[in-house]
Amino acid sequence: MTVANHQALKAVFQRIREQADQRKTADTDGAVPKITIGMATCGIAAGAIETKQTFEQALAERRVEAQIYTVGCIGHCYAEPVVIIDHPDSGFAPIFYHNVTAGKAKMLVRQFLIEGDPCFEHIYGAMETNEMIPSVTEFDRFNQEVRVVMEKCGHINPEEIDDYLVSGGYSGLAQALQMAPEDIVAAIQHAGLRGRGGAGFSTGRKWALAREAESLEKVVICNADEGDPGAYMDRTIIESNPHQVLEGMAICARAVGAHQGIIYVRAEYPLAVKIMTRAIAQAETMGILGRHIFETDFNFRIKLFQGSGAFVCGEETGMIRSIEGYRGMPQHRPPYPVVNGLKGQPTVINNVKTLACVPPIIEKGYSWFRSIGTEESPGTAIFSVVGDVVHAGLVEIPMGVTLRELIFDICGGIPNQKAFKAVQIGGPSGGCLPAAFLDTPIDFDSLTQAGAMMGSGGMVVMDEDTCVADVSRYFLDFTQNESCGKCTFCRIGTRHLLDILERITKGEGQDDDLQRLQDLSLDIKKGSLCGLGKTAPNPILTSIRYFKEDYDAHLKEGRCPGLVCRPLIAYYIDLDKCARGCDACVGCCPTNAVFTTSTRKKGIDQQLCVKCGECVVACPPEYDAVRKVSPPHLVPAIERPAQPENAEDA
Amino acid sequence: MNDVLTSEEKAILADIQQYLSESKRDRSRLIPVLQYIQARLAYIPYQSIALVAAHFNLAPAEVYGVASFYNQFRFNPPGKYPVKVCLGTACHVKGADIILENFERKLEIKEGETTPDREFSIERVACVGCCALAPVALLGESVHGNMAPSKVEGIFTRIQVEKEMEARQKSEK
Ligand SMILES: Cc1cc2nc3c(=O)[nH]c(=O)nc-3n(C[C@H](O)[C@H](O)[C@H](O)COP(=O)(O)O)c2cc1C
Ligand code: FES
């Protein structure tokens, strides 16, 4: 492109930007309070729709003027529904409220918007430093996070391209169009960006290979299949800021010389599909995608393909087969998709997060990106931290932060004064790490060395009441189901692994089962074509390495140390604690297993008990009489008094 | 597989045939077409597989082979109130299997099945995206977080009440 063209492009981008600015200013009334509500899947699940309706109603009833503004997920899923109220007239900085139920919404309209009292006891923190309310930036959760990918998530309306433009969006693409394609590839290479989809392959190298491949047509695919059954950050990013992903794809297309793009989103993510479809349409209407982007000669069209829920389609060649209309079975590599991919064309496949890192790198330069994170793993990592942790949600941290900092400082540690037992990282391909590894820095190589892996970015924290053998069984159940069946070792081997784990967790394990698990695991790793089979045994291998005593307890004593495996536990009622005449546990039992003893206390019929634990919850805390033990024979015998009418066959 | 179609389903099937006749025969349209059928009928009846096979000039077994590979496609009609229990990692750790069992006991069907009156069906799903509320179950589109066996009971009571209200409204009209 010539200099004159650069000028023209800048002018076009400037014009688009200014128009967006004007529309936004016309839309917003600076003087009235602004109520921002998080409406991604996590918010909606927690009741954000009801919260929004209540705000609307209360505002209308009381004739209060305010603007309601819906955004995506800010990452604090434990606090949903999250509402931020900016009420300039009140003199307070914008305030972050958590768990805003319909009742709280009504109260805030009345007390804060009308009377000016921000309801101090319900405040989570102020969004800016000020003298009246402690600011959230003082909390670990906020000040240790560094946001590259999620910077705008939860702050802009994902359904309006103007929001993205006004907050500086698409300037990376405008800049990239003024660069030579080789220079874009070089910038990504210098940035040291590694694929966030799991393996951590150098994105720059991938692009360079695709750029060198000679072909008239090339394809860019965004991998938003997110197969890990316990991770949801790709979905949340799309639901909160779809344009950053589109911009990343367009820059990639420019760099490698592609004109077609496909976003592969799971059909189970209806909101993400809807928001992404809208985003693509808006960008096309504005001339940011499609033909003659920014009135240049660059064309790039993006289509959305809905994935139908097969874990193996997250694998590159499986994904390509599925887009072509076949069973999503992985193919032999090489040839790699960058040379011979979709319909034989060179194809770059990148994860959502990888692509979302691209626009900021182009905009702020690769040395900025390198200044975050570690030498070998620059940038940030995004985890969905869930399980037994106080502040569950999405966290974006610089690489190199330790697991301890992430779990205990940023996410608030383990609730209910329980002890930390393990953290599972990387989903079905990853592993469980024990407390001894809490000081491991989070980056691609350290995690792999420890036996886990970055994988999808799912992170499940587990307290002392979890059973590692059960978690392995859970993941094997998943991978066994999802194995496409092509390789014998993966298809049948995972079935055998699952069988062995099932008998162990039932207390029916055999002496040499651990050895058998390990041997078979190594064989499966060797005998499988794709990453699914190669990594499926990881949960087993790491858990045997670090939690052998858990397996031994199951095998040798028939005991589940975490009191999880139901065939190995039993509930009983401590008669010394049980209160005479109290019936709290009777009504809650789904199988009528609770009976009244001759002393008018309660007992549990072990034959009928399904071990759901409901009676533990129902028993009033001042009695706290229900006990859970393993192995089950520890239950003291409590006789069920013979009852006159049909008690026996109940 | 369910062989009997309701008259409503037959009408939709005719619609689908119309849709097919207007769409491309390119194989890469196969999965989107199946998705379209499921979106219309909530499942893929055998009769529609035959239509699709004819359209793409494939054997019905080939089409069924593709459809059955993917978890999304179902071959039995779901209930009017589909129950989906999340068995994602976070929910599993918090006892999702107990929740699933409670639904199964209550409805007297297993996961993957539909009650004979076609009112309820039970499915297991992977992470619904709100692990902070684990364990989670969905009833239709509405999400129920922090599930407990006693809440299962509550959900059915609520449906019962809703149904009665609906019936009353109808009779008032
Ligand atoms: C069984 C299996 C499942 C995968 N699932 C995903 C997935 O859900 N999302 C993803 O981005 N990558 C997934 N991958 C990794 C992809 O094959 C591929 O490495 C990735 O999309 C490349 O993008 P990146 O370089 O940006 O990481 C999976 C790999 C395997 C073997
Ligand atoms: S695992 Fe159930 S919602 Fe995430």
Can you walk through the features of this model?
The complex is a heterodimer of chains A (650) and B (173). By secondary structure, chain A is of the alpha/beta class. Chain A has 25 helices and 18 strands. In chain A, the strands form five sheets. Chain A has a five-stranded mixed β-sheet with strand order 2-1-3-4-5, covered by helices on one side. A five-stranded mixed β-sheet of chain A has the order 11-10-14-12-13. In chain A, strands 8-7-6-9 form a four-stranded parallel β-sheet, with helices on both faces. The model of chain A has no long low-confidence stretch (mean pLDDT 93). With 173 residues, chain B is an alpha+beta fold. Chain B has two domains: 7-69; 81-172, Glutaredoxin, CATH 3.40.30. Chain B contains seven helices and four strands; from the N terminus they run ααααβααβββα. In chain B, strands 2-1-3-4 form a four-stranded mixed β-sheet, with helices on one face. In chain B, strand 3 (137-139) and strand 4 (142-144) form a beta hairpin. The model of chain B has no long low-confidence stretch (mean pLDDT 91). Classes of the chains: A alpha/beta (650), B alpha+beta (173). Chains A and B meet through helix 2, helix 13, strand 10, strand 14 and helix 18 of A and helix 2, helix 4, helix 5, helix 6 and helix 7 of B. The site of flavin mononucleotide has 24 residues of chain A, from strand 9 and helix 21.
